[in-house]
Amino acid sequence: MYVLTHSPLQTIRHKLESIEIHSYRMAQFLCKLIPASCPFEREIKLGDRTLVHIPPLCKLNPLYDQLVELRFKSLVYLADKCD
Question: Which of 2, 36, 48, 82 is 20 to 30 A away from residue 8, measured at CA?
Fold first, then answer.
């Protein structure tokens, strides 16, 4: 009997966590690709009044922490190596 010990999502998380940044171009690409803040958060206003506030939804993404960590690794590489 074959038992799955890791889900596909855990495998993807592990792959993202194991990525190492070794080049300026890769670090720059990842910083441009992964947004610094949630692009879905919005406030809909009419004049000075806020009608609706849409909260950030990125934390619902199961890979959110790994993507933020990857962007952080890229920023650290750019700050340390390419200064």
Answer: 36
